[in-house]
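Are you able to produce any protein sequence you like plus the matching backbone structure tokens because I've never seen that pairing?
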Amino acid sequence: MSRRYRLQCSDEAPKRRRRFDAESEQVAADPYAYGSAVGGNRCQASLAGTHGVLTVTVVRIAHRSFVSPTWDAPSMEMTVQLTIDCSDPQRMVTFWAEALGYVVEPPPGGHATWRAYWAAVGVPEEELPAGPGDVAESIVDPAGRGPRVWFQQVPEPKVAKNRWHFDLKVGGGRDVPLDVRTQRVKATVERLVKAGATVLRFKDEPDMGMYAAAMQDPEGNEFDVV
């Protein structure tokens, strides 16, 4: 006999709960029609839905049916890119490649510039104004661990303090003696000042085991060396 069950599964991201009525109605109408017996009183059915696979387990005990839905989230490949607005991408590329130990990302396919690459893949000329793509605009982690950083040229200047910043953790953590961490921070600060950074202040608090520097990159973006 066909039985109907109202199923509700939860998906933690991006919302706390998401109802899968459309995907589950077919299975809910009669799980035995969509699944296969996995025991004398148990049936399991799966249905590929919009957001993944809904698996329904039906257990019949003493003429009663207990429905246990589970949700298998779809696998997804995702990479992270950090985009930073700036007025001089080439200067920022040079500085942050030095600061992060990154390398300049070359244009794909042997093209001389990113602009040439974009034109080759069909980006209309009117969407390629002079400037963007003519010089290096992105850096990448040569080890492949950190995110790609793209410096997007914009006309407006930076006008307020950033709501985010880089922490360059060069000290090695609190397991490293404070005097060693201090020397590492000082050496990095000296190197980055030569590359175009500005020191805002030092945080020298030996009682708390802390030595750090607040700095700005060549366009005034704040970051810390710890």
Confidence is low (pLDDT under 50) at residues 1-28, 34-38.
